[in-house]
Amino acid sequence: MSERTNRLVLGFCLISFLFLEWDYGVLAIIFVLMFEGLTNWRIPILISRMRYAMDGAAINIREDIHYKYHYEAERITRFTVATTIFLGFVVNRDLLWFLPYFVGLNLLLAGITGLCPLVMLYKKIGFR
After folding, report:
1. I need a surface site. Which of 10, 69, 94, 98 has the fewest CB within 10 A?
2. Which of 2, 123, 118 lies closest to 69 in space, CA to CA?
3. C-alpha closest to that of 32 among 79, 92, 73, 91
4. Cα–Cα distance between 122 and 127 in angstroms, integer?
5. How confident is the prediction along the chain (128 residues), in pLDDT tens digits per residue?
6. Cβ distance 127 to 65 under 8 Å?
7. By three-state DSSP, how is residue 31 classified?
8. pLDDT of residue 28
9. Which residues have C-beta within 8 Å of that of residue 71, sequence separation ≥ 6?
């Protein structure tokens, strides 16, 4: 499963869980995103390794480019998405109810188009 497909599935699941008012599903998405952000064990890569029995092909990082921060843009994006959903869903549900829907729609559109504005912003800031 690619990152694009992962965003599409996460966005669709998040919007579905919010629409159906299934709180445990939204909390599970927050947990998965925080787990992936903390450990950098990406669920799509783990599924691909289990499915195709790959030994562990490393992600190639170009060494000739000097990054301002040695932290991946995908990882910080997962933290940002999980935090935004957490703020809108758990912390202040009455005032910030639109944040999880906004994040779900953006994840869905990023999965469809293949362009994630948040990842592009973090790469422009200096993350790898």
Report:
1. 94
2. 123
3. 79
4. 6
5. 678 888 899 999 999 999 999 999 999 999 999 998 888 888 777 777 788 876 555 555 555 566 776 778 888 999 999 999 999 988 888 888 889 999 999 999 999 998 889 989 998 988 88
6. no
7. helix
8. 94
9. 127, 128
